[in-house]
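Example for tutorial group B:
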């Protein structure tokens, strides 16, 4: 079965969030199962594209309303990844240093039209088109309704919702940019009197998936306005838990970390990584090290951190390290704690891939008090490296972390507020003080299988059920 994934992100080409990690791993595992799988994405001006050479495999002109736009389809000259990646090159729209911007309606409309024009030209067409998030949300509609793509409308199309909070809304003044279709079908694009690409995808895709079973259920209650639609379309919706790439995320071979280790050498390996972190960020390696890695935005629950950290650092013998960037007010609040808790707390505002790996390999606990977490990959990375997750019971966190009081291996809380997160941190310090139990749990979590093998097969089964 020939599978084509369409996405705005793909690790290591371009990454903003977990979408990139999924699209950078799932195709590899589907290839391993014997199904030729490739990705098509925009051609950005970034480190990856600057570091590689590309061949042109297709050139054409697309129509975006009354505008004619030349585009190319590129492919790396050398095989760089474990699967083929094709790039839509539209210099004036897509070749930017950023992935997302204020003019995304035009940018991603042009991208989606170029993808379908290219597929239309190919002798060998995909047997499954798998779209990811709202940036590709109009592809199911165009395949079904645009006259130009009528010959492609028998190809099953899947839409995966990675985060339903972002839906790609735009006004009816841009309706003419969509390739011609029967105007009586405009309702398929509409939700709450605006054009909503994610809603259109839910209506028109053959199947709709989310990145965890719990998130699928939660969306029927909280989907930023799409609750009724998802409930109505529930017969074609299914939650498939994401996996992680266990070749990239492997403490035995990870070239980023200070010292590699396995279950037998976990004590010395993690000690070396923790020491490096504590030396670099002026922290006490004898204390339990709590860490956060991710976007500093409300969805992640980080607005409670300034109060939580202040109270916990005053009451508990712990160290805290933050890696992330996001809302300026949160960044400032976290930076302002540094002089108050020197030797106990530090924050790196920004993102550093190497540092993130070392934190997974050296921190004792990972904080994830998310308000929204469709799947979450960080907790799976943490488990793989022997770092115990502290999570809110939501979405994929609920599906992957079981509390130690329920014969599990993590620390869970139900709400996003300072009191509950502080209590979870206190419970973690109690666990840390019981080193025998702490080390037993750490070894156990490293054996939990969250690889893509199971999830990739689940998607293959889904494709085969509709093909």
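The residue assignment follows.
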């Amino acid at each position: 079965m020939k599978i084509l994934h369409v996405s705005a992100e793909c690790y290591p080409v371009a990454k903003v969030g977990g979408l990139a990690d999924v699209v950078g791993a799932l195709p590899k595992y589907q290839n391993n199962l014997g199904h030729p799988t490739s990705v098509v994405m925009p051609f950005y001006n970034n480190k990856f594209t600057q570091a590689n050479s590309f061949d042109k495999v297709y050139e054409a002109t697309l129509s975006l309303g009354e505008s004619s736009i030349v585009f190319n389809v590129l492919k790396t000259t050398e095989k760089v990844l474990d699967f083929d990646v094709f790039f839509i090159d539209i210099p004036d729209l897509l070749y930017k240093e950023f992935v997302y911007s204020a003019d995304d309606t035009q940018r991603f409309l042009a991208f989606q039209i170029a993808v379908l024009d290219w597929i239309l030209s190919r002798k060998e067409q995909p047997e499954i088109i798998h779209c990811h998030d709202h940036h590709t949300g109009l592809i199911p509609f165009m395949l079904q309704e645009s006259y130009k793509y009528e010959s492609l409308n028998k190809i099953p199309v899947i839409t995966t919702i990675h985060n339903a909070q972002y839906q790609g809304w735009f006004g009816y003044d841009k309706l003419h940019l969509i390739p011609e279709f029967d105007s009586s079908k405009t309702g398929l694009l509409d939700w709450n009197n605006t054009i909503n690409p994610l809603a259109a995808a839910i209506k028109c895709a053959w199947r709709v998936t989310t990145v965890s079973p719990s998130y699928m259920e939660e969306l029927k209650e909280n989907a930023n306005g799409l609750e009724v639609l998802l409930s109505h379309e529930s017969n074609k919706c299914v939650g498939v838990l994401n996996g992680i790439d266990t070749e990239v995320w492997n403490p035995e071979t990870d070239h980023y970390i200070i010292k590699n280790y396995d279950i037998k050498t976990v004590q010395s390996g993690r000690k070396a990584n923790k020491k490096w972190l504590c030396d670099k960020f002026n922290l006490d390696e004898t204390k339990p090290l709590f860490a956060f890695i991710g976007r500093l935005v409300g969805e992640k629950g980080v607005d409670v951190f300034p109060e939580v950290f202040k109270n916990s650092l005053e009451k508990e013998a712990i160290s805290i390290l933050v890696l992330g960037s996001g809302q300026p007010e949160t960044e400032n609040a976290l930076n302002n704690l540094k002089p108050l808790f020197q030797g106990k707390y530090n924050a790196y505002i920004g993102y550093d891939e190497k540092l993130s790996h070392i934190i997974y390999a050296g921190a004792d606990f990972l904080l994830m008090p998310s308000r929204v977490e469709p799947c979450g990959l960080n907790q799976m990375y943490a488990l793989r490296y022997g770092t115990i997750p502290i999570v809110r019971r939501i979405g994929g966190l609920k599906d992957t972390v079981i509390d130690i009081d329920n014969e599990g291996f993590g620390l869970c809380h139900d709400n996003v507020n300072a009191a509950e997160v502080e209590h979870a941190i206190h419970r973690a310090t109690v666990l840390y003080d019981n080193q025998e139990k702490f080390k037993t749990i750490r070894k156990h979590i490293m054996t939990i299988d969250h690889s893509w093998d199971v999830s990739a097969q689940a998607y293959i089964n889904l494709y085969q059920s509709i093909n």
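The first helix runs from residue 18 to 23. Compare this with the pattern of hydrophobic and polar residues in the output above.
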